[in-house]
Design a protein that fits this description.
Low-confidence stretches: none
Number of helices: 16
Structural class: alpha/beta
Order of helices and strands: HHHHHHEEHEHEHEHEHEHEHEHEHHE
Distance between the termini: 26 Å
Bound molecules: N-carbamoyl-L-aspartate
Helix content: 25-40%
Number of strands: 11
Strand content: 5-15%
Mean pLDDT: 92
Largest sheet: 5 strands, parallel
Amino acid sequence: MAISQQVFLRDAMRRLNLTRDVFAARIGVKRRALDTWLLPEGSQEARAMPEVVARFVTEIVENSALMEKYAQSAQSGPLRDRIAAGGKHQLLSVDQFTRESVEELFRVADLMQPIARRRKVSRVLEGAVLGNLFFEASTRTRVSFGAAFCRLGGSVCDTTGFTFSSMAKGESIYDTSRVMGGYVDAMVIRHPEKGSVAEFAAATNIPVVNGGDGAGEHPSQALLDLYTILTEFSRLGKLLDGAHIVMAGDLKYGRTVHSLIKLLALYRGMKFTLVSPPGLEMPEYLLEQASRNGHVIEQTHDLATGLKGADVVYATRVQKERFAGENLEGYTADFQINRAIVDACCGPDTIVMHPLPRDSREGANDLSTDLNTDPRLAIFRQTDNGIPVRMAIFAVLMGVEGLVQHSLRDVTWAPPSHIGPDDSVFHGLD
Ligand code: NCD
Protein backbone atom coordinates (compact mmCIF):
# COMPACT_ATOMS: atom_id res chain seq x y z
CA MET A 1 0.00 0.00 0.00
CA ALA A 2 1.52 3.36 -1.07
CA ILE A 3 -0.03 5.33 1.80
CA SER A 4 0.39 4.26 5.40
CA GLN A 5 -2.13 1.92 6.93
CA GLN A 6 -3.00 4.57 9.48
CA VAL A 7 -3.81 7.18 6.79
CA PHE A 8 -5.74 4.60 4.77
CA LEU A 9 -7.97 3.61 7.71
CA ARG A 10 -8.53 7.18 8.90
CA ASP A 11 -9.48 8.21 5.38
CA ALA A 12 -11.91 5.28 5.11
CA MET A 13 -13.60 6.21 8.43
CA ARG A 14 -13.88 9.83 7.36
CA ARG A 15 -15.38 8.96 3.97
CA LEU A 16 -17.84 6.56 5.52
CA ASN A 17 -18.56 9.03 8.31
CA LEU A 18 -18.23 6.30 10.97
CA THR A 19 -16.90 6.31 14.51
CA ARG A 20 -14.16 3.82 15.42
CA ASP A 21 -16.67 1.56 17.18
CA VAL A 22 -19.11 1.46 14.27
CA PHE A 23 -16.30 1.15 11.71
CA ALA A 24 -14.84 -1.86 13.60
CA ALA A 25 -18.30 -3.48 13.66
CA ARG A 26 -18.82 -2.67 9.99
CA ILE A 27 -15.62 -4.45 8.90
CA GLY A 28 -16.19 -7.28 11.36
CA VAL A 29 -13.19 -6.83 13.67
CA LYS A 30 -12.74 -6.11 17.36
CA ARG A 31 -12.29 -2.47 18.31
CA ARG A 32 -9.01 -3.47 20.04
CA ALA A 33 -7.61 -4.85 16.78
CA LEU A 34 -8.60 -1.70 14.88
CA ASP A 35 -6.87 0.45 17.52
CA THR A 36 -3.59 -1.43 17.06
CA TRP A 37 -3.76 -0.90 13.27
CA LEU A 38 -4.31 2.81 13.78
CA LEU A 39 -1.24 3.31 15.93
CA PRO A 40 1.71 5.11 14.27
CA GLU A 41 4.15 2.74 12.57
CA GLY A 42 7.04 1.91 14.85
CA SER A 43 5.02 2.17 18.04
CA GLN A 44 5.36 -0.93 20.16
CA GLU A 45 1.69 -1.92 20.12
CA ALA A 46 1.20 -1.26 16.37
CA ARG A 47 0.14 -4.24 14.25
CA ALA A 48 -0.12 -4.73 10.48
CA MET A 49 -3.68 -5.07 9.23
CA PRO A 50 -4.31 -8.32 7.30
CA GLU A 51 -4.42 -7.98 3.51
CA VAL A 52 -8.00 -9.27 3.41
CA VAL A 53 -9.14 -6.41 5.69
CA ALA A 54 -7.48 -3.84 3.42
CA ARG A 55 -9.31 -5.33 0.44
CA PHE A 56 -12.61 -5.36 2.31
CA VAL A 57 -12.23 -1.72 3.44
CA THR A 58 -11.42 -0.65 -0.12
CA GLU A 59 -14.52 -2.46 -1.32
CA ILE A 60 -16.76 -0.82 1.30
CA VAL A 61 -15.42 2.65 0.51
CA GLU A 62 -15.92 2.13 -3.22
CA ASN A 63 -19.41 0.81 -2.69
CA SER A 64 -20.35 3.65 -0.42
CA ALA A 65 -19.16 6.09 -3.09
CA LEU A 66 -21.36 4.19 -5.53
CA MET A 67 -24.33 4.42 -3.15
CA GLU A 68 -23.76 8.15 -2.84
CA LYS A 69 -23.66 8.48 -6.60
CA TYR A 70 -27.00 6.68 -6.80
CA ALA A 71 -28.46 8.80 -4.03
CA GLN A 72 -27.33 12.03 -5.71
CA SER A 73 -28.59 11.11 -9.10
CA ALA A 74 -32.06 12.62 -9.29
CA GLN A 75 -32.76 10.43 -12.30
CA SER A 76 -32.08 7.12 -10.60
CA GLY A 77 -34.38 7.67 -7.58
CA PRO A 78 -34.84 5.21 -4.73
CA LEU A 79 -33.86 1.60 -5.34
CA ARG A 80 -37.40 0.40 -4.63
CA ASP A 81 -38.71 2.43 -7.56
CA ARG A 82 -36.04 1.05 -9.88
CA ILE A 83 -36.82 -2.57 -9.02
CA ALA A 84 -40.60 -2.08 -8.80
CA ALA A 85 -42.86 -4.64 -10.50
CA GLY A 86 -45.91 -3.21 -12.25
CA GLY A 87 -45.29 0.13 -10.50
CA LYS A 88 -45.54 -1.53 -7.07
CA HIS A 89 -42.90 -2.13 -4.39
CA GLN A 90 -42.93 -5.89 -4.62
CA LEU A 91 -40.38 -8.64 -5.14
CA LEU A 92 -41.82 -11.33 -7.36
CA SER A 93 -38.96 -12.30 -9.68
CA VAL A 94 -35.23 -11.75 -10.06
CA ASP A 95 -36.08 -10.34 -13.50
CA GLN A 96 -36.68 -7.07 -11.64
CA PHE A 97 -32.91 -6.65 -11.11
CA THR A 98 -29.97 -5.42 -13.13
CA ARG A 99 -26.40 -6.09 -12.06
CA GLU A 100 -26.21 -2.54 -10.67
CA SER A 101 -29.45 -2.75 -8.68
CA VAL A 102 -28.65 -6.20 -7.27
CA GLU A 103 -25.26 -4.97 -6.09
CA GLU A 104 -26.90 -1.90 -4.60
CA LEU A 105 -29.22 -4.19 -2.62
CA PHE A 106 -26.14 -6.09 -1.38
CA ARG A 107 -24.58 -2.87 -0.10
CA VAL A 108 -27.72 -2.49 2.01
CA ALA A 109 -27.28 -6.12 3.14
CA ASP A 110 -23.70 -5.24 4.17
CA LEU A 111 -25.12 -2.44 6.31
CA MET A 112 -27.30 -5.06 8.03
CA GLN A 113 -24.38 -7.34 8.94
CA PRO A 114 -23.67 -5.81 12.38
CA ILE A 115 -27.35 -6.44 13.22
CA ALA A 116 -27.44 -9.92 11.70
CA ARG A 117 -24.20 -10.73 13.55
CA ARG A 118 -25.81 -9.58 16.78
CA ARG A 119 -23.56 -6.69 17.64
CA LYS A 120 -26.09 -3.97 16.93
CA VAL A 121 -29.84 -3.50 17.05
CA SER A 122 -32.08 -1.21 15.02
CA ARG A 123 -35.75 -0.27 15.18
CA VAL A 124 -36.30 1.37 11.80
CA LEU A 125 -39.41 -0.78 11.20
CA GLU A 126 -40.88 -0.22 14.67
CA GLY A 127 -44.65 -0.50 14.54
CA ALA A 128 -44.72 -2.33 11.19
CA VAL A 129 -46.29 -5.79 10.98
CA LEU A 130 -45.32 -8.54 8.54
CA GLY A 131 -47.81 -11.16 7.39
CA ASN A 132 -45.97 -14.41 6.69
CA LEU A 133 -48.37 -16.54 4.61
CA PHE A 134 -46.89 -19.97 3.88
CA PHE A 135 -49.18 -22.38 2.06
CA GLU A 136 -46.32 -24.85 1.48
CA ALA A 137 -43.72 -26.49 3.76
CA SER A 138 -40.98 -24.18 5.00
CA THR A 139 -38.67 -23.72 7.94
CA ARG A 140 -35.78 -21.43 7.02
CA THR A 141 -37.52 -19.14 4.54
CA ARG A 142 -40.47 -18.47 6.84
CA VAL A 143 -38.40 -18.06 10.01
CA SER A 144 -35.62 -16.04 8.39
CA PHE A 145 -38.09 -13.59 6.81
CA GLY A 146 -39.76 -13.28 10.22
CA ALA A 147 -36.46 -12.88 12.07
CA ALA A 148 -35.23 -10.31 9.53
CA PHE A 149 -38.38 -8.20 10.01
CA CYS A 150 -38.11 -8.48 13.83
CA ARG A 151 -34.42 -7.51 13.79
CA LEU A 152 -35.47 -4.25 12.12
CA GLY A 153 -37.90 -3.62 14.98
CA GLY A 154 -41.08 -4.91 13.32
CA SER A 155 -43.33 -7.77 14.38
CA VAL A 156 -44.70 -10.79 12.55
CA CYS A 157 -48.03 -12.62 12.14
CA ASP A 158 -47.80 -16.10 10.64
CA THR A 159 -50.14 -18.53 8.95
CA THR A 160 -49.01 -21.94 7.75
CA GLY A 161 -50.69 -24.43 5.41
CA PHE A 162 -54.09 -24.44 3.74
CA THR A 163 -55.86 -26.48 6.43
CA PHE A 164 -56.02 -23.64 8.93
CA SER A 165 -56.59 -20.84 6.42
CA SER A 166 -59.85 -19.63 4.89
CA MET A 167 -58.58 -20.83 1.50
CA ALA A 168 -59.72 -24.28 2.69
CA LYS A 169 -63.25 -22.76 2.66
CA GLY A 170 -62.88 -21.75 -0.99
CA GLU A 171 -61.70 -18.17 -0.49
CA SER A 172 -60.01 -16.65 -3.56
CA ILE A 173 -56.43 -15.37 -3.66
CA TYR A 174 -57.84 -11.89 -4.36
CA ASP A 175 -59.99 -11.82 -1.21
CA THR A 176 -57.27 -13.30 1.02
CA SER A 177 -54.71 -10.80 -0.22
CA ARG A 178 -57.00 -7.76 0.07
CA VAL A 179 -58.02 -8.74 3.60
CA MET A 180 -54.43 -9.35 4.73
CA GLY A 181 -53.40 -6.01 3.21
CA GLY A 182 -55.72 -4.34 5.72
CA TYR A 183 -54.02 -6.09 8.63
CA VAL A 184 -50.32 -5.96 7.89
CA ASP A 185 -47.72 -3.68 6.26
CA ALA A 186 -45.91 -6.25 4.12
CA MET A 187 -46.51 -9.87 3.13
CA VAL A 188 -44.29 -12.80 2.28
CA ILE A 189 -46.15 -15.53 0.44
CA ARG A 190 -45.22 -19.10 -0.43
CA HIS A 191 -47.69 -21.05 -2.52
CA PRO A 192 -47.49 -24.35 -4.46
CA GLU A 193 -48.67 -22.85 -7.77
CA LYS A 194 -46.40 -21.02 -10.17
CA GLY A 195 -47.67 -17.48 -10.75
CA SER A 196 -49.91 -17.45 -7.64
CA VAL A 197 -47.78 -14.97 -5.68
CA ALA A 198 -48.11 -12.47 -8.54
CA GLU A 199 -51.88 -12.91 -8.19
CA PHE A 200 -51.65 -12.07 -4.49
CA ALA A 201 -49.50 -9.07 -5.32
CA ALA A 202 -52.00 -7.77 -7.88
CA ALA A 203 -54.70 -7.61 -5.19
CA THR A 204 -52.88 -5.27 -2.80
CA ASN A 205 -50.71 -2.17 -2.75
CA ILE A 206 -48.60 -3.20 0.25
CA PRO A 207 -45.17 -4.76 -0.45
CA VAL A 208 -45.39 -8.45 -1.34
CA VAL A 209 -42.38 -10.78 -1.48
CA ASN A 210 -42.41 -14.08 -3.33
CA GLY A 211 -41.25 -16.74 -0.84
CA GLY A 212 -41.48 -19.45 -3.54
CA ASP A 213 -44.27 -20.07 -6.05
CA GLY A 214 -44.32 -23.76 -6.98
CA ALA A 215 -41.64 -24.58 -9.52
CA GLY A 216 -41.56 -20.89 -10.53
CA GLU A 217 -39.17 -18.62 -8.67
CA HIS A 218 -37.58 -18.09 -5.28
CA PRO A 219 -36.02 -14.64 -5.64
CA SER A 220 -34.92 -14.04 -2.04
CA GLN A 221 -33.12 -17.41 -1.99
CA ALA A 222 -31.29 -16.61 -5.24
CA LEU A 223 -30.35 -13.18 -3.89
CA LEU A 224 -28.85 -14.66 -0.73
CA ASP A 225 -27.11 -17.31 -2.84
CA LEU A 226 -25.54 -14.67 -5.07
CA TYR A 227 -24.59 -12.58 -2.01
CA THR A 228 -22.93 -15.68 -0.52
CA ILE A 229 -21.01 -16.42 -3.73
CA LEU A 230 -19.76 -12.81 -3.92
CA THR A 231 -18.77 -12.81 -0.23
CA GLU A 232 -16.95 -16.15 -0.52
CA PHE A 233 -15.21 -15.05 -3.74
CA SER A 234 -14.12 -11.83 -2.10
CA ARG A 235 -12.53 -13.86 0.73
CA LEU A 236 -10.86 -16.16 -1.81
CA GLY A 237 -9.74 -13.27 -4.04
CA LYS A 238 -11.83 -14.47 -7.00
CA LEU A 239 -14.00 -12.56 -9.47
CA LEU A 240 -17.49 -13.72 -10.37
CA ASP A 241 -17.17 -12.64 -14.01
CA GLY A 242 -15.87 -15.67 -15.89
CA ALA A 243 -16.58 -18.15 -13.06
CA HIS A 244 -17.59 -21.77 -13.55
CA ILE A 245 -20.85 -22.55 -11.75
CA VAL A 246 -22.12 -26.12 -11.50
CA MET A 247 -25.77 -26.70 -10.65
CA ALA A 248 -26.63 -30.28 -9.78
CA GLY A 249 -29.78 -32.22 -8.94
CA ASP A 250 -33.41 -31.58 -9.82
CA LEU A 251 -33.05 -28.61 -12.14
CA LYS A 252 -36.54 -29.03 -13.58
CA TYR A 253 -38.55 -28.38 -10.44
CA GLY A 254 -35.94 -26.69 -8.22
CA ARG A 255 -37.11 -23.07 -8.20
CA THR A 256 -33.98 -21.80 -6.43
CA VAL A 257 -31.80 -22.67 -9.44
CA HIS A 258 -34.38 -21.12 -11.78
CA SER A 259 -33.93 -17.78 -10.07
CA LEU A 260 -30.19 -18.17 -9.47
CA ILE A 261 -29.20 -18.88 -13.07
CA LYS A 262 -31.02 -15.72 -14.18
CA LEU A 263 -29.20 -13.62 -11.58
CA LEU A 264 -25.79 -15.10 -12.39
CA ALA A 265 -26.42 -14.44 -16.07
CA LEU A 266 -26.25 -10.70 -15.23
CA TYR A 267 -22.47 -11.21 -14.90
CA ARG A 268 -19.98 -11.59 -17.76
CA GLY A 269 -18.50 -14.67 -19.42
CA MET A 270 -20.01 -17.28 -17.11
CA LYS A 271 -19.73 -21.00 -17.61
CA PHE A 272 -22.70 -23.01 -16.36
CA THR A 273 -22.53 -26.79 -16.11
CA LEU A 274 -25.94 -28.25 -15.44
CA VAL A 275 -25.93 -31.78 -14.04
CA SER A 276 -29.22 -33.56 -13.58
CA PRO A 277 -30.62 -37.07 -13.76
CA PRO A 278 -32.37 -37.71 -17.13
CA GLY A 279 -35.81 -36.09 -17.21
CA LEU A 280 -34.98 -33.44 -14.58
CA GLU A 281 -33.10 -30.98 -16.82
CA MET A 282 -33.30 -27.19 -16.55
CA PRO A 283 -36.35 -25.85 -18.51
CA GLU A 284 -35.58 -24.67 -22.05
CA TYR A 285 -36.76 -21.05 -21.53
CA LEU A 286 -34.18 -20.62 -18.77
CA LEU A 287 -31.39 -22.07 -20.92
CA GLU A 288 -32.29 -19.60 -23.64
CA GLN A 289 -32.39 -16.68 -21.22
CA ALA A 290 -29.02 -17.64 -19.70
CA SER A 291 -27.29 -18.30 -23.02
CA ARG A 292 -27.82 -14.69 -24.10
CA ASN A 293 -24.80 -12.45 -23.42
CA GLY A 294 -22.40 -15.20 -24.52
CA HIS A 295 -22.48 -17.46 -21.47
CA VAL A 296 -21.37 -21.05 -22.01
CA ILE A 297 -23.86 -23.73 -20.95
CA GLU A 298 -23.04 -27.41 -20.79
CA GLN A 299 -25.42 -30.16 -19.74
CA THR A 300 -24.55 -33.63 -18.51
CA HIS A 301 -26.04 -36.52 -16.52
CA ASP A 302 -22.66 -37.48 -15.11
CA LEU A 303 -21.71 -35.85 -11.82
CA ALA A 304 -17.95 -36.53 -11.98
CA THR A 305 -17.72 -34.98 -15.47
CA GLY A 306 -19.82 -31.99 -14.47
CA LEU A 307 -17.95 -31.12 -11.28
CA LYS A 308 -14.51 -30.79 -12.91
CA GLY A 309 -13.00 -27.33 -12.44
CA ALA A 310 -16.03 -25.88 -10.63
CA ASP A 311 -15.70 -22.62 -8.71
CA VAL A 312 -19.13 -23.21 -7.18
CA VAL A 313 -21.04 -26.47 -6.81
CA TYR A 314 -24.71 -25.74 -6.12
CA ALA A 315 -26.53 -28.93 -5.13
CA THR A 316 -30.32 -29.24 -4.92
CA ARG A 317 -32.84 -31.67 -3.46
CA VAL A 318 -35.12 -33.78 -5.65
CA GLN A 319 -38.50 -32.01 -5.56
CA LYS A 320 -40.54 -35.24 -5.45
CA GLU A 321 -43.59 -33.35 -4.29
CA ARG A 322 -43.81 -31.68 -7.73
CA PHE A 323 -43.28 -34.80 -9.84
CA ALA A 324 -45.84 -35.28 -12.60
CA GLY A 325 -45.10 -38.82 -13.74
CA GLU A 326 -41.27 -38.59 -13.64
CA ASN A 327 -39.44 -41.48 -12.05
CA LEU A 328 -36.20 -41.61 -10.14
CA GLU A 329 -34.48 -44.26 -12.24
CA GLY A 330 -31.61 -41.99 -13.27
CA TYR A 331 -31.11 -40.86 -9.71
CA THR A 332 -28.74 -43.61 -8.64
CA ALA A 333 -26.44 -43.78 -5.63
CA ASP A 334 -23.52 -42.35 -7.65
CA PHE A 335 -25.42 -39.06 -7.98
CA GLN A 336 -24.44 -38.02 -4.46
CA ILE A 337 -22.19 -35.02 -3.82
CA ASN A 338 -19.88 -36.18 -1.04
CA ARG A 339 -16.33 -35.66 0.14
CA ALA A 340 -14.84 -38.29 -2.18
CA ILE A 341 -16.24 -36.74 -5.36
CA VAL A 342 -15.49 -33.17 -4.28
CA ASP A 343 -11.88 -34.18 -3.43
CA ALA A 344 -11.53 -35.99 -6.74
CA CYS A 345 -13.06 -33.31 -9.01
CA CYS A 346 -12.73 -29.94 -7.27
CA GLY A 347 -9.95 -27.72 -5.98
CA PRO A 348 -9.31 -26.29 -2.49
CA ASP A 349 -11.09 -23.03 -3.42
CA THR A 350 -14.33 -24.57 -4.68
CA ILE A 351 -17.38 -23.69 -2.61
CA VAL A 352 -20.21 -26.15 -2.11
CA MET A 353 -23.70 -24.73 -1.65
CA HIS A 354 -27.27 -26.01 -1.28
CA PRO A 355 -30.48 -24.02 -0.61
CA LEU A 356 -31.44 -26.62 2.03
CA PRO A 357 -33.23 -28.61 3.30
CA ARG A 358 -31.00 -31.53 2.30
CA ASP A 359 -32.47 -34.97 2.64
CA SER A 360 -30.13 -36.65 5.14
CA ARG A 361 -32.02 -39.95 5.28
CA GLU A 362 -30.31 -43.15 4.21
CA GLY A 363 -30.25 -43.61 0.43
CA ALA A 364 -31.53 -40.08 -0.28
CA ASN A 365 -28.62 -39.17 -2.62
CA ASP A 366 -28.66 -35.56 -1.45
CA LEU A 367 -25.58 -33.53 -0.45
CA SER A 368 -23.69 -35.74 2.01
CA THR A 369 -23.08 -34.78 5.64
CA ASP A 370 -19.49 -36.07 5.35
CA LEU A 371 -18.49 -32.60 4.11
CA ASN A 372 -19.70 -30.94 7.32
CA THR A 373 -16.24 -30.14 8.69
CA ASP A 374 -14.87 -29.18 5.25
CA PRO A 375 -14.42 -25.36 4.96
CA ARG A 376 -15.50 -25.57 1.31
CA LEU A 377 -19.01 -26.38 2.50
CA ALA A 378 -20.71 -22.97 2.60
CA ILE A 379 -24.28 -24.07 3.37
CA PHE A 380 -24.50 -22.54 6.83
CA ARG A 381 -22.73 -19.35 5.80
CA GLN A 382 -25.38 -19.31 3.07
CA THR A 383 -28.30 -19.72 5.53
CA ASP A 384 -26.77 -17.09 7.84
CA ASN A 385 -26.69 -14.67 4.90
CA GLY A 386 -30.46 -15.10 4.59
CA ILE A 387 -30.91 -12.63 7.44
CA PRO A 388 -28.98 -9.56 6.14
CA VAL A 389 -30.27 -10.10 2.60
CA ARG A 390 -33.91 -10.40 3.71
CA MET A 391 -33.46 -7.39 6.00
CA ALA A 392 -32.18 -5.48 2.98
CA ILE A 393 -35.18 -6.57 0.91
CA PHE A 394 -37.61 -5.26 3.55
CA ALA A 395 -35.65 -2.06 4.18
CA VAL A 396 -35.58 -1.28 0.46
CA LEU A 397 -39.21 -2.20 -0.27
CA MET A 398 -40.34 -0.11 2.70
CA GLY A 399 -37.98 2.77 1.90
CA VAL A 400 -36.04 2.86 5.19
CA GLU A 401 -32.57 1.74 4.03
CA GLY A 402 -31.20 5.27 4.43
CA LEU A 403 -32.17 5.32 8.14
CA VAL A 404 -30.36 2.13 9.18
CA GLN A 405 -26.79 3.33 9.55
CA HIS A 406 -27.61 6.01 12.11
CA SER A 407 -30.18 3.91 13.98
CA LEU A 408 -27.69 1.32 15.25
CA ARG A 409 -27.37 0.72 18.99
CA ASP A 410 -25.23 -1.85 20.84
CA VAL A 411 -26.77 -5.20 21.72
CA THR A 412 -27.24 -5.92 25.39
CA TRP A 413 -26.50 -9.65 25.28
CA ALA A 414 -23.42 -11.65 24.26
CA PRO A 415 -23.89 -14.25 21.50
CA PRO A 416 -21.40 -17.14 21.17
CA SER A 417 -18.51 -16.27 18.84
CA HIS A 418 -19.33 -19.26 16.59
CA ILE A 419 -22.89 -20.46 16.16
CA GLY A 420 -22.07 -23.95 14.86
CA PRO A 421 -19.52 -26.41 16.25
CA ASP A 422 -18.13 -27.03 12.74
CA ASP A 423 -18.00 -23.37 11.64
CA SER A 424 -14.76 -22.39 9.93
CA VAL A 425 -12.44 -19.89 11.57
CA PHE A 426 -13.38 -17.21 9.06
CA HIS A 427 -17.05 -17.72 9.81
CA GLY A 428 -17.17 -16.53 13.42
CA LEU A 429 -19.51 -13.80 14.61
CA ASP A 430 -16.61 -11.95 16.16
C1 NCD B 1 -36.01 -24.56 -1.24
C2 NCD B 1 -37.43 -24.28 -1.69
O1 NCD B 1 -38.36 -24.29 -0.87
O2 NCD B 1 -37.54 -24.01 -2.87
N1 NCD B 1 -35.79 -24.36 0.11
C3 NCD B 1 -35.58 -23.08 0.58
O3 NCD B 1 -36.43 -22.25 0.49
N2 NCD B 1 -34.39 -22.81 1.11
C4 NCD B 1 -35.45 -25.82 -1.75
C5 NCD B 1 -36.13 -27.14 -1.47
O4 NCD B 1 -37.18 -27.21 -0.88
O5 NCD B 1 -35.54 -28.15 -1.88
